[in-house]
Amino acid sequence: MDNTFSSFNPISRTLMGPGPSDVDPRILTALAKPTIGHLDPQFIELMDQVKQLLQYAFKTENALTMPISAPGSAGMEACFANLVEPNDKVIVCQNGVFGGRMAQNVIRCGGELILIEDEWGKPTDINKLADALKTHPDAKIVAFVHAETSTGVKNDAKALCALAKQYGCLTLVDAVTSLAGVELRVDEWQIDAIYSGTQKCLSCVPGLSPVSFSPAAIDKIKARKTPVQSWFLDMQLVMEYWGEGAKRAYHHTAPVNSIYALHEALVNLHNEGLEASWLRHQRCHEQLKNGLQSMGLSLVVEQDFRLPQLNTVYIPDGVDDAKVRSCLLNEFNLEIGAGLGVLAGKVWRIGLMGYGCNERNVDYCLNSLQAALD
Ligand code: PLP
């Protein structure tokens, strides 16, 4: 084995897959600022700003709004591990890969899983949720993915939460791909627990998971009869460091520089305006959709349920999936995503997320794809 090593210098790509997305150079600059202590008063001030900016991004006043020091999957685990107690009935709506992971989380937490399934590429059928809630009036939680990255479907978070609330359930929502890319209103839509990721429409580096818990969710956590199995993700402990009026007691060493990066990403979002960001994603989606359709390609998801930031496109008959993607990567430095799960080999996933969601990138993607197909 060669035992000479040198610095890693990746070539710059245009990332238009399902994430990570292109990181704004301003965010990379923020990441390179000097590391300070995670209990330094300057850092504590920054933490307060990050919490306020996340409240802005989530449209919530929830005091417990903060980033988990690990990727989106850890945000998912934090929500389930804290809210699900053994034998709690939890309804999970699944229409893609990530809903399936939610179901796995319920089982691993000892909950009783009630699974509602819909076809991949179609939204969750609210009537199925209504039936499940009638059949299981003792259900405690309804969980679903707002933006299903595996299919490009947007589930109707507002309607699903409103229905769950009529039955007294807590609502638990995956917003890994939705945050900042599409309308999301945590308080107005009555979402009790939500998690996201930094590497999608926030255009930040991967590795952090913004979460938010409502007062009702915190009450459930505080009333637990059994301790949360995960020490690291136990929100009662994490609250001592991140929570409102917290003692800022040492819990774990926060990923200081990543928090600088998240702060910069959120400042960018705040400067642009949340609604303006949603509109930009929609505008670029229209441009991409028109271009793809004029190339004879068709999108998997119907217009009304389509995510602007994640476009699933059918691979035309006779076209070699891997060959096209590797041509894009090697000749155009452009990454698009392969299909996942049942859609593997059938679709490409084209991301329009955050900083990378702009007219120039859409044109570049369309021209490169046309060249790869010719
Ligand atoms: N949920 C959804 C909808 C996702 O798209 C992803 C990642 O793509 C995750 C959860 C997991 O996030 P991470 O890969 O950051 O752990």
Brief overview, please?
By secondary structure, this protein is an alpha/beta fold.
Structure description:
With 374 residues, the chain is an alpha/beta fold. The protein has twelve helices and 14 strands. The protein has helices at residues 25-31, 41-58, 72-83, 97-108, 126-135, 157-166, 215-222, 235-242, 256-272, 274-294, 321-332, 359-373, and strands at 14-15, 64-68, 89-94, 112-117, 141-145, 147-148, 153-154, 170-174, 193-195, 209-213, 310-314, 334-335, 337-338, 347-351. The strands form four sheets. Strands 2-10-9-8-5-3-4 form a seven-stranded mixed sheet, sandwiched between helices. A three-stranded antiparallel sheet has the order 11-14-13, with helices on one face. A hairpin with a 4-residue loop joins strand 6 (147-148) and strand 7. The longest helix has 21 residues, at 274-294. The model has no long low-confidence stretch (mean pLDDT 96). Bound molecules: pyridoxal-5'-phosphate. Residues 18-19, 71-73, 76, 98, 145, 149, 174, 176-177, 197, 206 line the site of pyridoxal-5'-phosphate (PLP).
